[in-house]
# Entry
Amino acid sequence: MKLRELIEGLETVDVGGNLDIDIKGIAYDSREIKAGDIFVCIQGFYTDGHIYAQKAIEQGALALIVEKDIEAPEDIAVIRVSNSRKALAKIAANFYGNPTQNMNVIGITGTNGKTTITHLLQNIFESIGVHCGLIGTIACKILGKTYPVRNTTPESLELQKLFRKMVDQGVHTCAMEVSSHALEMNRVDEIQYRIGVFTNLTRDHLDFHENLENYRNAKKKLFYKTTSANIINVDDENGKEIVKEIKDLPVPLFTYGIHERSDIYAKNIRVFLKGTEFTLVTPEFEGDIFFRTPGLFSVYNCLAAAAVAFVLGYSFESIKKGLESVDGVPGRFELIPGTGDHTIIVDYAHTPDALENVLKAVREFAQGKVITVFGCGGDRDKTKRPIMGRIAGELSDYCIITSDNPRTEDPIMIMNEIELGIKDTVCKYKMIEDRKDAIREAVYMSAPEDVVLIAGKGHETYQILGNNVIDFDDRKVAEEMFRRKYKNETND
# Structure
């Protein structure tokens, strides 16, 4: 593509060099530059892409997009902009032919529930023969093939490439998680969203956003990008605030909830170990749904997905078929198989609200003790640690505080901060730094009627210790420990 075509529509401060050169690719990481590429200099959290401009030129870059004055050879085209992240989104969309113009993209934002809702939507669409791509925390999926992703919402360049791949393969619908970071950092600029969904807002990412108002304002940006509908959970206080701010937009607004008056809601809710029953009510139909994950949070997730399907004109039968055929989402209230009368659950809950929701769901059916294993991530919002300690203590019979992904923080210090909250409760607890040992302790002490909840990492298959990433899967460890426990009891 000619450089002139690539930068079409770009807001530039200064343009220098030959705009008729052919650009073969785009990169914002100098290590990925190939001959004939354009290099976008982005100022990141830890480094500045402008530092690597010369390296990119040496590796064959023909053009640069910069925010700062930079020295470059005369044969290198230099495009100066005020925001290189916005520029990256624009040229990526141009390079890949603006694929979302030919798609139905559904964006889901909020603190909790995004991953599950995208999977539910994909299942609803696929169950009626509509191919649906998926972009989210766990992975990107297109026609059954999985593509790894580095962030909940990838960088704009990767997003446009994925959308192009979907369109080329005949996939014109996509359910995607939209993180607050992505909205704030222009990753989702140039994406045409048909529908936006808001799930909830609780304490998370305050190390980045500083306060809840900034966090909500970042999420709110999604609802100014939609063309067909916005769908908001009005049981959430921040959802109510967003409704007040966007209700006069020309895009139709739909609400969902359980307690507050809403367009799509649930009634007659019953929770069991094996799932949740409820009656789905919309302005046009109502009917009973059985979803295979227990808990009130599951009802909210189903309502969000059902609301999208309703807005798109799908029947109750299609929604029911799609929701009831979901076996589960990896790392989301995932029951460890082969444990007989024992119940061991692995869940991604890593925020106060998510931990509270999953523990309340467990309390609905637990006949014995509730034993919770959890920690908090390092180099992230520290204020939620004692809050999560208190919640775990209030809703568990026994807690084991352990290491999560401590990253560059001292795991013992993180555990001590969690302990401050659990001390405010009467819950018995133990602190075991090694996560494998902590899971073993919980499984070994459990009886058949007890529930062991291992929270925080869910689907993740690694643990970040310092600057090292090691293999670690809560599910595999729990299975291993149960086998050992059973073998020991049999030998006894």
Notes: The chain has a mean pLDDT of 94.
